[in-house]
Amino acid sequence: MFKYTLVPTGFFSPADAHKILSEAVRLSEKDKVNYQELPHFKAVLVYALSEEGKAPVIAGLLDKVSSIAGEVKVAACFDAAALHLVIVSGEKLLAANSFPAADPVTAEYFIFAALKQFRIDPQAVTVSLAKPASREMMKDLILYCKGVKVL
Questions:
Q1: What's the gap between Cα 150 and its chain centre?
Q2: Most CB atoms closer than 10 Å: which of 21, 26, 28, 143?
């Protein structure tokens, strides 16, 4: 399960981070809550640290998406268990979500479904991957998108 949520900056107080996250996801007693300010999106990412003390994958994508060129920016990471996806149009954050995906076909489905939801033509965007995907997935993405690159 992915334990994070985005909160508009105006509604966030560091003292309320645990309460905010517990209202969005089920927390265990050992979950440690942290947050990351995202001033360029006027939002705060509130999350539970992993057992290794790491921030969720989506935090890294939210950091990297600003460095991607173009009007519509798509950053993704597929780790054989989930697809983590961030979509930005101009300066507006459209989506930041994680989806259970045990295989590349399911991950591709979520990418294309999210693009369709926001009426974004896949042939007009380059998908930026946080790490290389399988050859098959790269071929599929290149077939339907303007391009694919690794961040």
A1: 15
A2: 21
The answer to whether 3 touches 31, Cβ cutoff 8 Å, is: yes
The domains located in the chain, with CATH, are 4-55 (no CATH), 58-150 (3.30.420.260)
AA identity, residue 101: A
**Residue 37's CB: how many other CB atoms inside 10 A?**
13
Single-letter residue type at 118: F
Mean pLDDT per 10-residue segment, the chain (151 residues): 92 95 92 94 94 90 93 93 95 95 94 96 94 89 92 87
pTM of the model: 0.91
